[in-house]
Amino acid sequence: MTFPHMGLLSIPVETLINGLGHQAVAPPPTNKRTFELGAKYSPEAACLPFKINLGNYIEALEQGAEGIVAAGGIGPCRFGYYAQIQQRILQDLGYDFELLLLEPLGGKREELYRALAILLRNRRLYQITRILRLVWNKVRWLDRGNTLFRSYLPRSEVKIEARQRYEEFLAKIRLEENINKLRLHYQEYSSKLQGLVANKNEKATLRVKIIGEIYMVLEPRVNFHLETTLGEMGVEVVRNLSISQWVEEHLFGLFFPSHKR
Predict the structure, then answer these.
(1) Would you say 15 and 134 are in contact if contact means Cβ atoms under 8 Å apart?
(2) Are residues 139 and 232 in the same domain?
(3) For the residues 227-251, what does the mean pLDDT come to?
(4) Which end of the chain is more exposed for a tag (fewer CB within 10 A), N or C?
(5) Is residue 261 part of a domain?
(6) Is residue 51 included in any domain, yes or no?
């Protein structure tokens, strides 16, 4: 099973797919070839996220992926139509795969039920509950870790070490299967970042808030690692958009309309 990249979302999605008894096939990190493939086979007027997602799928299918997990939905753009159009394009290119489309309850329930039946068929209820809790906690701790990184990077005396500590934290969260150890990884990571700052009360020279389309904000390989670049220049980056916000809006908020952030 594969999926498109969007910021740190690949970490919990890999955990979900593997935890449900399937094999996650992550696309290669988004690169120039990803864009070229997406641009070549997408409609000319399609947005950049559509093209990058399509390129992700092609590269993952080349690596042997047999299924694609994609979200449906509604919203201010055509996001809810991405998967169906991309499915047609990929089939026309000769790829044989299963599309598992997680549509909200307001959409075609038959498609949602079919996707869930395939995803959940290898697990009992208690196993599903456990893996969902692990995935959601990973999402929350990843967001907290990213917020901490954006705060400490511009204040760090050794910025390359701050980046290394952040990458170590992400790697540990990716591999961790014990929900109770996620907090410990975060605390260890927080302590290491604090040790890189001589004056913890020092203010960044500038605070910049990044706004815009969520994919462009969250995917560093598309926005040219804007947050890290600014942080290394001494600028603290703040934003409201996050993977937990996306999950709550596109999954919790649509499957459970009464859910509140």
Answers:
(1) yes
(2) yes
(3) 89
(4) C
(5) no
(6) yes
pLDDT, residue 81, reads 83
> What is the residue range of 147's domain?
126-247
Residue type, 86: Q
In this prediction, residue 242 has a pLDDT band, given cuts at 50, 70 and 90, of: very high
What is d(CA 137, CA 114) in angstroms, rounded to the nearest whole number? 26
Classify strands 235-238 and 98-102 as parallel, antiparallel or unpaired: unpaired
Task: Give the whole-angstrom CA distance, residue 261 versus residue 250.
Answer: 12
Predicted confidence (pLDDT) at residue 259 exceeds the cutoff of 60: no
Of 120, 144, 164, the position where a domain reaches its end is 120
SS3 for 68?
strand
Contact 4, 218 (CB under 8 A): no
CA–CA gap between residue 138 and residue 218 (Å, rounded): 16
pLDDT score, position 20: 96
How many domains is the chain built from?
A: 2
Separation of first and last alpha carbons in the chain: 29
Q: Are residues 113 and 158 in the same domain?
A: no
Same domain as 236, residue 182: yes
Strand pairing of 98-102 and 67-71? parallel
Determine the average pLDDT of the residues in 47-52. Answer: 96
In angstroms, the CA 26 to CA 29 distance is 8
Q: How far apart are CA 100 and CA 1, in angstroms?
A: 9
How many Å apart are CA 179 and CA 183, to the nearest integer? 8
Arithmetic mean of pLDDT, 171-182: 98
Report pLDDT for 261.
54
CB 251 within 8 A of CB 71: yes
Compute the average pLDDT of residues 171-199: 95
**240 CB-side CA count, 13 A:** 4
At residue 117, the pLDDT reads 94
